[in-house]
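In the laboratory, one determines a bound structure by crystallizing the protein with its ligand and collecting diffraction data. In a computational setting the workflow is compressed into a single prediction: the sequence and the ligand go in, and a structural description comes out. We illustrate the idea with nicotinamide-adenine-dinucleotide.
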Amino acid sequence: MRIAVTGSSGKLGRATVDRLRAEGHEVLGLDLAGSAGVGFTRVDLTDYGQTLDALLGVTARHRGLDALVHLAAIPVNGLVPDATTFHSNMAVSFNVFFAAHRAGIRTIVYASSITAAGFPFEDAPPYLPVDEQYTAANNTYALVKVMEAAMAGQLVRWAPEASFTALRFTNIVAAGDYGTFARAADPTYRRDLIGSYVDARDGALAVSLALRHARPGHEVFNIAAPDSGNAVPSAELAAAWFPGTPVREPLGEYESLFSTRKAQEVLGFRAEHLWRAEYVPE
Ligand SMILES: NC(=O)c1ccc[n+]([C@@H]2O[C@H](COP(=O)([O-])OP(=O)(O)OC[C@H]3O[C@@H](n4cnc5c(N)ncnc54)[C@H](O)[C@@H]3O)[C@@H](O)[C@H]2O)c1
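The predicted complex, in structure-token form:
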């Protein structure tokens, strides 16, 4: 397939481009940042004209796309003022989704986030493990993730053959970033992420599986490692962090409290890079 990846110079974008190319796809990276070269075009996705033009075609790069992976965003609150996070990310996602619609690109996989599901969990979720049914935004970054999903849910009605897949990634850990797992035995470690994590290479695996399993309509999948990033048993963490919150399913000893059951069952997703193997004590 010919696939464009927005945010291709970022943490998840680099892993995704590598994986899709290794699988034999023709991949065009689209990002504000990055070095010129084959397979990359610099685009400011807050500009609708640039976005639409880049999806329709780019001289010496492509003359039409089969699918789009949308990862570009300001990835967290605090980097810029909160209103700027909202305006920038909202403009980027509207531009990308609507330009894809206009350009006739019907397979879209996009990055959502655990922030659309209650991060930083100052309020207890209604039940554990947290699945895709729970939506709660607590900052402007998360608000955009919720609004993207609302937009995608309507756009699939405008083009009934269109497929939008939201991957609700938890905190993405790059290969060299496992140092903080030195704190894994601390019961407060990753409390705001309900203990969860996912390796960037597994994030890329989820993107690849979502492209392969794309069906008309809008679907949401949580994406995390199957185990918690905390070395305290998950039932103990659940009881300590959220006393009184029902645990709906029997929990494996270190099972993630961010449920990936749906991604496992529907996409066949099973993260391969787990912190217990990746973390090397100093
Ligand atoms: N990093 C995480 O822990 C995490 C967790 C959940 C979801 N996500 C989501 O995953 C996606 C990728 O995150 P990441 O960690 O790779 O972030 P990143 O910051 O490493 O990469 C994002 C990329 O988007 C690009 N970008 C931003 N605004 C742009 C614009 N106007 N035009 C063109 N390019 C633009 C940036 O230049 C950057 O290369 C984002 O949508 C993010 O919200 C990330």
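The radius of gyration is 19 Å. Keep in mind that any predicted model is a hypothesis to be tested, not a measurement.
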